[in-house]
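subagent[fold] <- orchestrator: predict structure for attached chain, return tokens only, no commentary.
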Amino acid sequence: MRTRVITAVIALAIFLPILFIGGTILQLTAALLAVIGVYELFRMRQIQLLSYEGVLAALGAIVLVLPKNPWFSFLPVNTEKWMLYYFVVMLILGLSVISKNTYTFDEACFPVLVSLYVGVGFGNFVSARMDKDGLIVLMFAFLVVWSTDIGAYMFGRKYGKNKLWPEISPNKTVEGALGGILSAVVVAVIYLIIFPAKQYFDHSLFTVALMTIVLSVIGQFGDLVESAFKRHYGVKDSGKILPGHGGILDRFDSMLFVFPIMHLLGLI
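subagent[fold] -> orchestrator:
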């Protein structure tokens, strides 16, 4: 526990100032986190990051994370950066030709999905911060996820009896999941009273509170998805970069699902 607390304090001391500063440093940090996320997934599958598909998956994730301007301003005005990402996908698929079909389509799907999963998640994180009220939106997202995690742990520990999904995550309970949602809504309502929902999210307090329920559920589902990856590959943590916490994906698994859904709901 002491190691977890020390790591959390150091990580927050580094991460929170980057959130406040925003701009280039936040974009590069997000790109770095995305590359680490790609590395962690490749490590689970026992593939080197410094391989043909590993390098391309990392490049694809970077393309999805960094905004077109200024990073890809060399592209024609009417060309979306998604086309540049698709070019990376074409290069991955082309390995089946170069390898004379020893590298299959099924194998190519792994680096493509990895780059999408990590790149779109961190890309929406960057997009959220670029808005004029981006810091307020980002903090809302983090508070929803953090309060869900803490609430789920506390309620699950005290009241947990019914397993939520034992085949994927044996320690999670239905009571904990519901407690996480309740905690997220309470924290979100308090936050939205301080930062009015209509002003910063263009929705009523009631509407954003309902969206908070959705985001809390989605965040917990993102956590379960990453747990499924680890169980499939037989690893306890996605990595070791954060002592006591595991890897980057262990800390951002919920965020990688929450940020895109916030975009889908119009909150970003």
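orchestrator: received. Logging for downstream: Residues 23-128 form one domain. The first helix runs from residue 2 to 21.
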